[in-house]
Design goal:
Blueprint: E1 5-12, H1 24-28, E2 33-37, H2 45-58, E3 61-66, H3 83-103, E4 108-113, H4 115-123, H5 125-142, E5 147-150, H6 155-163, E6 167-172, H7 196-207, E7 212-213, E8 219-220, E9 226-229, H8 236-249, E10 253-254
Parallel strand pairs: 1-2, 1-9, 1-10, 2-3, 3-4, 4-5, 5-6, 6-9
Antiparallel strand pairs: 7-8
Length: 262
């Protein structure tokens, strides 16, 4: 019987200037893919460079975590951005990160939207198409067929498939799900899971293709190639280490879904 296989990703580089949000180095010891902030919701040039260097050292695949231009709101405030503008902003963010990834001996391998943009492209085909257009521009410039990481059943997934852009689905170890498989809005109580044992148990279930429970307590099967632990959750580095240890203990193989990571 083939062992289950999954990627473990987290959001990194979300500091700014002298402010650090989480322990990027510790997270890089656990994850196989790193979603690196590109300066629009968090992150800055020195942070991007440092995280890329550390990721390459550890064999972790680098992804660009693109966002609406919203530093003050950490990219979590809804925005209306015209399609051509959003496409250009996505390509711009990927290009900025790719410079540092290549300087470190790696390259950006995939793109993952963040926050309000991530939620918007679950259902908004127009905004999803803009993200895919930006990914295609960045792919042509870099010579790499960049993949997108997105929610199962999302408009972004459909637009990627229609455009021939490689796509992979992800699940969230520390977020509550609604009955339709979408994420429960952060504005609702209980949307983020903080109990480590519950997050670890959910992670193993998802990796083994077993049902979890939705916000209403009903069984829900979530299919994904990658598993996300949010980098801005308190204690994220320790939680990611526990998740990885539990997955390995349960016989799950950890391997990046794109690029040449561990």
């Amino acid at each position: 019987m083939t062992a289950p296989l999954i990627d473990l990703n987290a959001d990194l580089g979300e500091g700014f200037g002298r402010w650090r949000l989480t322990d990027d180095d510790a997270l890089l010891d656990s994850v196989t893919s790193a979603n690196v902030a590109c300066g629009f919701h968090a992150g800055d040039a020195p942070t991007m460079r440092r995280v890329c260097e550390r990721a390459v050292e550890r064999g972790v695949t680098i992804g660009a975590q693109v966002s609406y231009l919203d530093l003050a709101g950490f990219g979590r405030r809804p925005m209306d951005v015209p399609r051509d503008e959003l496409a250009a902003e996505v390509a711009y963010q990927v290009g900025a990160l790719d410079v540092f990834a290549r300087a470190a001996g790696g390259a950006v391998a995939y793109v993952k939207p963040h926050g309000a943009l991530y939620n918007r492209v679950v259902r908004d085909a127009e905004q999803a198409a803009a993200v895919i257009e930006g990914v295609q521009v960045a792919s042509r410039a870099s010579g790499v067929a960049l993949a997108v990481l997105c929610l199962p059943g999302s408009a972004l997934l459909s637009e990627a498939d229609a455009a021939g852009v490689p796509s992979f689905t992800e699940a969230f170890a520390d977020r509550a799900y609604q009955a339709d498989g979408s994420l429960q809005p952060r504005s609702e109580s209980g949307s983020v899971l903080h109990e480590p044992d519950a997050v670890v148990a959910r992670s193993v279930a998802i990796a083994r293709h077993e049902p979890i429970t939705d916000a209403g307590g009903a069984p829900l099967l979530v299919s994904a190639r990658s598993l996300c632990v949010h980098g801005d959750t308190p204690g994220a580095a320790a939680l990611a280490a526990r998740v990885r240890a539990a997955l390995e203990r349960d016989g799950v193989q950890l391997r990046a879904f794109a690029g040449g990571g561990a």
